[in-house]
Design a protein that fits this description.
Blueprint: E1 9-18, E2 21-31, E3 36-40, H1 47-54, E4 62-67, E5 70-72, H2 77-82, E6 85-88, H3 100-104, E7 111-112, E8 115-116, H4 118-131, H5 148-161, E9 166-170, H6 178-193, E10 197-201, H7 205-211, E11 214-219, E12 222-229, H8 235-243, E13 263-271, E14 278-283, E15 287-291, H9 298-306, E16 313-318, E17 321-322, H10 328-333, E18 336-339, H11 343-347, H12 354-359, E19 367-368, E20 371-372, H13 374-388, H14 404-418, E21 422-426, H15 434-449, E22 453-457, H16 461-467, E23 470-475, E24 478-484, H17 490-499
Parallel strand pairs: 3-10, 3-11, 6-9, 9-10, 15-22, 15-23, 18-21, 21-22
Antiparallel strand pairs: 1-2, 1-4, 4-5, 7-8, 11-12, 13-14, 13-16, 16-17, 19-20, 23-24
Length: 503
């Protein structure tokens, strides 16, 4: 009887401790050649730490890693790469200004006599891109000019240039639109057909079903289910494994907006660049969702309302007062808050404490005789983080160390502190696990119930329809449909964004 080959990678009893916390408390799973093995878990479950251990960035305190049956130890990321393990993080480490070919062979340049063999570098890069089904990407193109999906392909080509047999992909679809996700999945399937294994990490359960073969679930640093057949486990079961709770409707119930509610936000003829102007209103206590494809102009609309982008024409009125165009300070003073799509680069001071990230837009409240009262900042921030269940609860903790869901809560706490009248949310649950999503949805609905006008932009159409009272469908900067959220479905939204036909 022929025995089956050992797993490409096997992890047993993995433990990793940091001062004051055990990030991994016993992780077991294995990956087979040619499969897509999905890794699920809420924010803080240990996924990021596990990735860093497998990629050589952290050394485990206990447990073992085997590659093809042999015990291995990765002292650093270079050692992991030599063993055929390559990691593609959500924030790609490509270098804008360098060509595609230079990025693919960065750190292991093809050289002879001290000179880079540029022709050979381009030839091998072209061959790798063809292997990935992307011969359309020129090796000489500046990588900074590529789309997000093309940059993902270049990162994969870099991994393959080091003969990677295992690709670890952290939220690879987070910044991609639907067509780009389909292209990414096609490339992944082509790689697995060649025997490459993929560990795929995503918070989008529908993606797990589409691309995954098996799934392992982590909770509180431990494996709670290992190597489940994706086709044999229900979404409800996965949610229960991740959260410890039964799956339920995550969208809180809508409450009717009073017919006499004031118009908190009025947008008239607002145009950005050469796009047509848009008109819409949001009443106090109402949640309005903007649905559309990536690049349709939704984020630009929010940025123009917030003053971060100066419109070419039109006006924004908050509580009857016209705002000065392109002036963030005027918008904030009028009670407008923005949680941006790129919270790490645009919404947070990553190397500052949680409390300072919360108070940064309200510092005059804590000024005493020309000095900041940091104790008062900490006290008020602690009250807010407790009410939002931010974990860990230490407001002196550097915000960079928090999970995506908790970072988003910190940004929301900032605007709660200011008592904003209009809250703009751009992709509020990107990179946020299913449990934290429900918490954010409940918080948004609670704010609306207090009279805050909320505008939500999301690439997840189901999220827009489930969270909003009213939906605007945006295509190429124009509103092509406006109506109650419960009177339109996902199929109709997709028809509108693809065809642009008015409803």
């Amino acid at each position: 009887m022929t025995s089956s080959p050992p797993p490409l990678l096997s992890v047993r009893g993995l433990v990793k401790r940091f001062p004051g916390v055990t990030a991994l408390a016993g992780v077991d799973f294995d990956v087979r050649a040619g499969e897509v093995h999905c890794l699920l878990g809420q924010n803080g479950a240990g996924k990021s730490t596990l990735i860093k251990v497998l990629s050589g960035a952290h050394r485990p305190d206990e447990g073992e890693i085997r590659s093809n049956g042999e015990v291995v130890s990765f002292a650093n990321p270079t050692a992991a790469m030599r063993a055929g393990v390559a990691t593609l993080y959500q924030e790609l480490d490509l270098v804008p200004g360098l060509s595609v070919a230079d990025n693919v062979f960065l750190g292991h340049e093809l050289s002879a006599g001290g000179f880079t063999r540029r022709a050979e570098t381009r030839r091998r890069t072209r061959a790798l891109l063809e292997r990935l089904g992307h011969s359309d990407i020129p090796p000489d193109r500046d990588v900074g000019r590529l789309t997000a999906a093309q940059q993902q392909v270049v990162s994969m080509a870099r991994a393959l240039s080091r003969d990677a047999r295992l690709l670890i992909m952290d939220e690879p679809s987070a910044v991609l639109d639907q067509d780009e996700v389909r292209t990414l999945f096609r490339v992944i399937r082509e790689l697995t057909a060649q025997g490459v294994a993929v560990i795929h990490i995503s918070h989008r359960l529908e993606e797990i079903r589409e691309i995954g073969d098996r799934v392992t679930v982590l909770k509180d640093g431990r494996t709670v289910a290992a190597g489940l057949d994706v086709s044999a486990v229900s979404t409800a079961e996965l949610i229960k494994l991740m959260t410890g709770r039964e799956a339920r409707n995550v969208y809180p119930p809508r409450r009717p907006v009073p017919p006499d509610a004031a118009e908190a936000l009025v947008v008239r003829g607002l145009a950005v660049g050469r796009r047509a102007g848009v008109d819409f209103t949001v009443r106090a206590g109402e949640v309005v969702g903007l649905a559309g494809l990536v690049g349709a102009g939704r984020s630009e609309i929010l940025e123009a309302v917030y003053g971060a982008r100066k419109p070419t024409e039109g006006e924004v009125v908050v509580d009857g007062r016209r705002l000065k165009p392109g002036n963030v300070g005027a918008a904030v003073r009028a009670g407008v808050g923005l949680c941006p799509e790129e919270r790490k680069s645009q919404g947070l001071l990553l190397d500052q404490a949680v409390y300072r990230n919360i108070t940064v837009s309200s510092l005059p409240l804590f000024a005493r005789m020309g000095f900041l009262d940091e104790n008062a900042e900490r006290t008020r921030s602690a009250d807010l983080t407790a009410s939002l269940d931010v974990r860990p609860s230490d407001v002196d903790r550097i915000v960079r160390t928090l999970s995506g869901g908790n970072q988003q809560k910190v940004v929301l706490a900032r605007w709660l502190l200011r008592g904003c009248r209009v809250l703009l949310l751009d992709e509020p649950t990107r990179g946020v696990d299913v449990g934290a999503r429900g918490e954010i949805y409940r918080l948004v609905r609670d704010l609306a119930d207090r009279g805050v006008a909320v505008v939500v932009v999301s690439s997840d159409i189901d999220e827009v329809l489930g969270l909003a009272d009213r939906v605007l469908v945006v295509r190429e900067g124009r509103v092509v449909h406006e109506g109650p959220a419960d009177e339109i479905d996902e199929a109709r939204v997709l028809d509108l964004v693809m065809e642009g036909t008015a409803a």
